[in-house]
Amino acid sequence: MSDPAASGAPTAAAASAVPAALAVPAVPAVPAVPAAPVTFGIVGRGWRADFFARLAALLPERLTLVGAAVRRADAAEEVARRWSVPAYLSPAELIAKQHPDFVVVCVPWPATPEITAALVGDGVRVLAETPPAPDADGLRALWARVGGREMVQVAEQYLLLPGHAARRELVRRGVIGQPTSVQVSSTHGYHAVSMIRGLLGAGFGPVRVTASQFTAPLLDPLNRDGWTGEETPKDAVTTLATFDFGDGRSGLYDFTDNQWHNRLRLRRILVRGSLGELADDTVVRWGGPRTVLRSTIVRSQLGHDLNLDGHDTEHLSFDGDVVWHNPFAGLRLMDEEIAIATLLTATADWARDAGPAPYPLAEACQDHLVSLAVDQAAATGSGVVTEVEPWGSV
Q1: Strand ordering across the sheet containing 208-218
Q2: CATH number of 38-154
Q3: Which CATH topology does 4-27+160-330 take?
């Protein structure tokens, strides 16, 4: 561990100046290998469900996928072949036959609340895909049915991506002092809100949201399926929104249609604090009397040039101190897979009461509530103020 004074990082006294109410929680640690693999099932069979099945197969000492549930017989046959597990025509049958430690729910938004509530009613812990319900009334109804049981986590992984996890750790350590503002131009809706709230350590209080939308031409050469063949720009909508969380904390949301896949739009993240700011991988901060320091987050990437250890991410460091280490080194995972595997193993640990809740339903409800306020503000042109909801008053 490097000397904070020598590196220009805030002293213990400076770090302790961050109010407890604004403290940024630590990124969940990957649990130790359990004595026996944690078992889970999947409801659904889409693109995201494949991530969970594939990662579990790479982590047999930690996880065992014991079955899947889908609605149609032909889909069940296809899933059984693809994942090499038994497939059933209902979640109830999956639970009755396999008794998994938890179930991942990967179904369309309108179906998620009902399936989640039914599983909780049967005493099964759930990892539900985002969002947990389509709209604000659905969030409230789901919370009324299952919120008090504390049996639901939600599959929000963005702050677990290596770069974001390293940034979050620097904020948690107080490197830039008290976090006051976060700007995100990377992903959409509740994902971006989760990043902003998570980096600020924002709670469940009222949020004032303003939003505007602008249409301009943009070439769209890539989507989830690969190169589109497009060579002519078409209209794309950019949404800009601001968040006022109170206590001097704010957020800026900037998203353009298909920004996830379109490489013609760079991803940007800025975290401002009382002692400096973090912009992507560059950090400026107060280093003492008449001293402002600039440092970078450095990724150690294996497999380049004459490194023969295989193409893999090793760690991310800051001023010679490792701030994130790849818990799945050797599996050659891309960042998104590392984040999902981190969430999945943390959920497995939680399912056996051996670790904390990685992303509870209350946090997911709040993130989606604020995201819905962005949509409303953009559609009406008027500011929206969210209220304190039942999940924020427990």
Answers
A1: 321-325, 312-318, 291-302, 282-288, 276-279, 268-273, 179-185, 249-256, 234-246, 208-218, 384-385
A2: 3.40.50.720
A3: Dihydrodipicolinate Reductase; domain 2 (3.30.360)
HSE, side-chain direction, 13 A CA sphere, residue 295: 19
> Could you identify the residue written with the tokens 């004459």?
306
pLDDT at 391: 97
pLDDT of residue 308: 86
pLDDT value for 393? 85
- CA 65 from centre of chain: 22
User: What count of other Cβ atoms lies within 10 Å of the Cβ of residue 290?
Assistant: 5
Query: How is the chain split into domains, by residue range?
Result: 4-27+160-330, 38-154
Encode pLDDT of 18-77 as tens digits: 434 345 556 555 556 777 999 999 999 999 999 999 999 999 999 999 999 999 999 999
Taking only the tens place, the pLDDT of each residue in 81-125 is: 999 999 999 999 999 999 999 999 999 999 999 999 999 999 999
Residues lower than pLDDT 50 in the chain = 1-22
**Crossing angle of helices 361-380/189-200, nearest 10°?**
120
Distance between CA atoms of residues 66 and 361, nearest Å: 24
